[in-house]
Write a structure and sequence with these properties.
With about 425 residues, the chain is an alpha/beta fold. The chain is built from 15 helices and twelve strands. The protein has two domains: about 170 residues, Rossmann fold; about 150 residues, 3-Layer(aba) Sandwich (Rossmann fold). A seven-stranded mixed beta sheet has the order 9-8-7-6-10-11-12, with helices on both faces. The structure holds glutamic acid. The site of glutamic acid has 13 residues, from strand 3 and helix 13.
Length: about 425
Amino acid sequence: MSGKYEFFQVIQQYLKEAARAVELDPTVEHLLSQPKNEVIVNFPVKMDNGEVKLFKGYRIQHNNILGPFKGGIRYHESVTLDDVKALAAMMTWKCSLMKLPFGGGKGGIKFNPREHSALELQKVTRRFTHALGGNIGPDYDIPAPDVGTNSQTMAWMMDTYMNTVAHVNKQSSRGVVTGKPVASGGTLGREKATGQGVVHCITEWAKDNRFNLEGCTYTVQGFGNVGANAAMILSKFGASLIAVGDHTGYLYNPEGFNEHKLTEWVREHKGIAGYPAGKPITRDEFFSVKNDIFIPAALENQITEVEAAMMHTRVVVEGANGPCSPEGERALLDKGVVIIPDVLANAGGVTVSYYEWVQNKRSESWDLEEVDARLDKQIKAVYQEVQHLARQKNIDLRTAAYGLALKRIETVYHERDIFP
Ligand code: GLU
């Protein structure tokens, strides 16, 4: 990794390429090339030691032609306006691809949540939600967890928002965020949904390629919500996790890690470092480990041409958003590696967020079987549509996924036309 990575430009370039591949109306392409709204707030928070710190928060609302803006809130020291714009645009494609009645949005605060106490995190979250004010709402813009945030963050956001609306609207505001704890109006199955979606893509790929998952090997970069859940679900298919990495380091175990024990360790120790059943390796060694399936589930721009040159794998399943740089992707494709793109591979999260939002609207709570069955059907059907378009047009899966997403948006723009 070197130099400044222009994530938003990368996404704009993907948009351009896909638009060409599916002959998108140039006006629609133009409209989608910039976000609709860019909200930036600066807000003070009193730290545990009495010091007042100023935080910068973003909420980018990319597009809402298909429904309310939708997408996560990221807490990370590397958050920039440029990244959030890229991630918001990807949410527009993701929701359209999955046929959800949502547009795309993304938010974030540039800070390291690991350096703060639970009380400070709560105050940052509440003050940010308050600063966003009417820029979010259950029928307008609906945040969710992302890197550095979780169901607890969402409970604080919901509670803060509920306390700002009129009393009569309080209970109907539950759907202002998704990914909430189940008792506070979340849905069963949301916690594992992104990892579950990753595995659905893997099983579809395996079925189409007559590949036996039993006894195959895989590696995971990033062992947070997405990576750990994908690994625990994949373990049921007899696949063996032989290398893993996160912000605390990289580990190798040719015999295969016990995914559940590793997850338990990470919960307790906040990282994989020190886990006894693995040999510490370098980042380069991690990328060089020969495997069948590679799951990037950390941050963007992790697989550049440098990492791609080291990798020996059959399929890269993008649990993270934007883990491959365009050059990294090109190098992998040239090697014959299949890339199941982020907007499809990690779309299980926002899909189950949609189920949560529907349940909130109807005051229902579905059982886990229902959530699981719906996600299974929805993501596998879209996977097949993407494969079909890719084959038909002889394009890669990312371009095909973008193409499908864009065509759906184009239809709606043509039906509704431009106001006034
Ligand atoms: N942050 C997740 C994503 O990138 C989930 C978004 C959501 O559930 O709204 O897809």
